[in-house]
Amino acid sequence: MAEGGSKIWTAFSLASALTAAAVAKKTLDKSWTLATGKKPPENPADPDVDIWEAVTWAVASGVAVGLARMLAQRRAASYYARSTGHLPPDLQRDAQRA
Q1: Exposed site from 14, 34, 40, 41, fewest CB < 10 Å?
Q2: Are residues 88 and 80 in contact, defined by beta-carbon separation less than 8 angstroms?
Q3: pTM for the complete prediction?
Q4: Rounded alpha-carbon distances, angstroms, from residue 72 to 3, 19, 51, 75
Q5: What is the DSSP letter of 98?
Q6: Taking the CA of residue 39 as centre, how many other CA atoms within 13 Å lie in the half-sphere pointing to its CB?
Q7: Is residue 53 within 8 Å of residue 41, measured between CB atoms?
Q8: Tens of pLDDT along 64-87?
Q9: Distance, C-alpha 3 to centroid of its chain
Q10: CA 38 centroid distance within chain
Q11: DSSP string of 28-93?
């Protein structure tokens, strides 16, 4: 069961992280447009994009997507634990080290 549980957790964790990242990106795109009045930079590495706009976009998108993924994976782990009675296999190892 541990191997099967590990595969289920991996798929569940990946799906929740990807969904959260997509929602965060869409939300950030809309927020950027509302705040600046223009679309977010499509390629911040493009020399035609102002450096401060590129830096601001990189920081904002990195924080938003990273935070959304982390929160989604924490919720997924909590749901997994409630459903199975134990933490996901990857997190059990972390809990044993602490």
Answers
A1: 34
A2: yes
A3: 0.75
A4: 23, 8, 31, 5
A5: -
A6: 4
A7: yes
A8: 999 999 999 999 889 888 988 888
A9: 25
A10: 24
A11: HHHHHHHHHSSPPPS-TTSTTS-HHHHHHHHHHHHHHHHHHHHHHHHHHHHHHHHHHSS--HHHHH
pLDDT value at residue 70: 93
The single-letter code of the amino acid at 98 is A
pLDDT at position 1 is: 45
Which residues, in sequence order, are CB contacts of 20 under 8 Å at separation 6+?
A: 68, 69, 71, 72, 73
What is the residue type of 80?
Y
pLDDT at 5: 67
Residue type, 48: D
Distance from C-alpha of 26 to C-alpha of 83, rounded to nearest angstrom: 30
Residue holding tokens 């289920």? Answer: 8
Tokens of 54: 């590129």
Residues 8-17 pLDDT 10s: 888 888 899 9
